[in-house]
């Protein structure tokens, strides 16, 4: 329906498509929902409507969504179960009777984390961003945000590791976006101002098998203030794409995408920007 923001988040894997509808009002104002479709015989069929087991007004369930195998991860950053806008991530699993709620994870840092503003999952690696969370090692009001890996143990989902920028003074809004292919994790921090007011940036994380995650900052060579770099992310193999909105007050806003390539030495190099999208005006 009009105004429900249907399609503001989408995720697909194989024959499963999940569409976020974060302002759906079926269970109350802005409680949200996720519509699930599956493809059979070249036809997409609606198979489920997912909602939180205890819907909350203003929780924006479905503002982020990810699909990995038989699991769908749904962010509800406005959930206040653990404090005002602490946020929560819900996990649904497909079984013999269809999709069913399996569990949820709350923000480890408590209130105002906006946990679940972003989610990503691939090859058994699941992540949730909390871009307003105060980091355990930092008291800086201007450096907020963390990303948490999610893991299921003994039938219960919980946060396992916290990913944060290498320096506690950088990465404001860290976790507003997140992407992974199961090996590499990309995290956006659009409010980062190390290189200028609201320039934004992204961080790339990798880890050896069963080891700790190691990250580094990746900045486009032409980064400029108010670029909001990190607003869109994608990763596949050795390639990483980092999108920027550009100054929202510019007309037109000079958005762009920078491609990064992971070299054999694990150093990151930035080729030329991807071609700009032609103007439709």
The quaternary state of the protein chains shown equals single chain
Structural class: mainly beta
User: H/E order of the elements?
Assistant: EEEEEEEEEEEEEEEEEEEE
Strand order of the largest sheet: 1-2-3-4
Q: Report the sheet with the most strands, covering strand number, pairing sense and barrel closure.
A: 4 strands, antiparallel
Ranges where pLDDT stays below 50 over 5 or more residues in a row are: 277-281
- Please state the CA-atom Rg, rounded to the nearest Å: 18 Å
What is the beta-strand fraction? 35-45%
Mean pLDDT metric: 87
Question: Can you describe what's shown?
Answer:
The chain is globular, with a radius of gyration of 18 Å. With 281 residues, the protein is mostly beta strands. The two termini are 27 Å apart. The protein is built from no helices and 20 strands. The relative contact order is 0.08. The model is unreliable at 277-281 (pLDDT under 50). Strands 1-2-3-4 form a 4-stranded antiparallel sheet, with no helix packed on it. It has strands at 9-13, 16-21, 33-40, 43-50, 64-68, 71-76, 88-95, 98-106, 118-122, 125-130, 146-153, 156-163, 177-180, 185-189, 201-206, 214-218, 229-236, 239-244, 256-262, 268-269.
Give the tags.
281 residues; mainly beta; 4-stranded antiparallel beta sheet; 20 strands; 0% helix
């Amino acid at each position: 329906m009009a105004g429900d923001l249907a399609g503001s988040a989408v995720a697909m894997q194989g024959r499963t498509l999940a569409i976020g509808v974060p302002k759906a009002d079926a269970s109350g104002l802005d409680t949200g929902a996720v519509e699930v479709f599956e493809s059979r015989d070249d036809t997409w069929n609606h198979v489920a409507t997912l909602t939180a087991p205890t819907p909350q007004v203003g929780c924006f369930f479905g503002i982020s969504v990810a699909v990995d195998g038989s699991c769908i991860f749904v962010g509800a950053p406005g959930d206040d179960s653990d404090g005002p806008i602490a946020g929560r991530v819900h996990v649904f699993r497909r079984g013999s009777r269809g999709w069913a709620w399996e569990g949820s994870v709350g923000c480890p840092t408590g209130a105002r984390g906006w946990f679940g503003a972003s989610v990503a999952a691939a090859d058994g690696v699941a992540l949730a961003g909390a871009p307003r969370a105060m980091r355990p090692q930092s008291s800086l009001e201007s450096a907020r945000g963390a990303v948490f890996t999610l893991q299921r143990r003994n039938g219960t989902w919980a946060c396992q590791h916290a990913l944060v920028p290498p320096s506690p003074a950088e990465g404001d809004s860290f976790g507003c976006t997140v992407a992974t292919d199961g090996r590499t994790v990309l995290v956006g921090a659009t409010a980062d101002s190390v290189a200028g007011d609201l320039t934004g940036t992204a961080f790339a994380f990798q880890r050896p098998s069963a080891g700790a995650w190691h990250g580094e900052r990746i900045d486009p060579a032409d980064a400029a203030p108010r670029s909001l770099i990190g607003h869109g992310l994608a990763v596949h193999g050795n390639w990483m794409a980092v999108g920027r909105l550009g100054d929202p007050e510019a007309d037109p806003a000079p958005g762009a995408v920078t491609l990064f390539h992971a070299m054999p030495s694990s150093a990151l190099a930035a080729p030329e920007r991807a071609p700009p999208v032609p103007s439709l005006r």
